[in-house]
């Protein structure tokens, strides 16, 4: 598996706009890894693959979640959460990615989870603040990301939770666990 062919394969899964976002996440994840003593090589790989299945049809993702017995409770939560779990499965299935740290960072990049690894945090945060992102609160999250991954991620999850509440949607329990746990990590 070489990075260039993986790049080509990933680009083919998605429209140009999503590919541009992916390149932004790669660039940002490498920067965050250098800033916060993470692993730049794994950060680049996980960032490249994080939205691998994002543009896949809903039916295809649902079938994979059922057939591969990925976390079944996903199905009652927002469909936006599905691509992360499906993507982690797909890059293993299609490209033989077996590094569990990388697969977990892909799997939990949307929801977060309790005890996020440094790699989980870097990929999830990079996804929120890559240069192409524009939503209310993003500049504050970018500021926080200059000194603390945890503070930035809490603010990022807060903004997602606020939107979910506004729209009357369920909150996936791992996001609540992630936020509570990150608050506990602040000193
Ligand atoms: O795939 P991206 O658009 O780059 O970003 P993402 O994978 O972080 O997806 C974010 C979307 O997921 C965002 O629109 C909010 C939605 N979502 C739905 N339910 C939840 C959720 N996000 C979190 N963190 N937790 C949820 O329960
Ligand atoms: Fe995503
Ligand atoms: Fe995210
Ligand atoms: Fe993304």
TrEMBL record:
Kindly list the GO molecular function terms attached to this UniProt entry.
bis(5'-nucleosyl)-tetraphosphatase (symmetrical) activity
The record, for CDD domains, names: HDc (cd00077)
Keyword list, A-Z = Hydrolase, Iron, Metal-binding, Nucleotide-binding
- HD domain sequence ranges: 18-132
Query: Per the record's keyword annotation, is Hydrolase included, yes or no?
Result: yes
Q: Which SMART domains does the record cross-reference, listed alphabetically?
A: HDc
* Protein name, per record: bis(5'-nucleosyl)-tetraphosphatase (symmetrical)
Source gene? Answer: yqeK
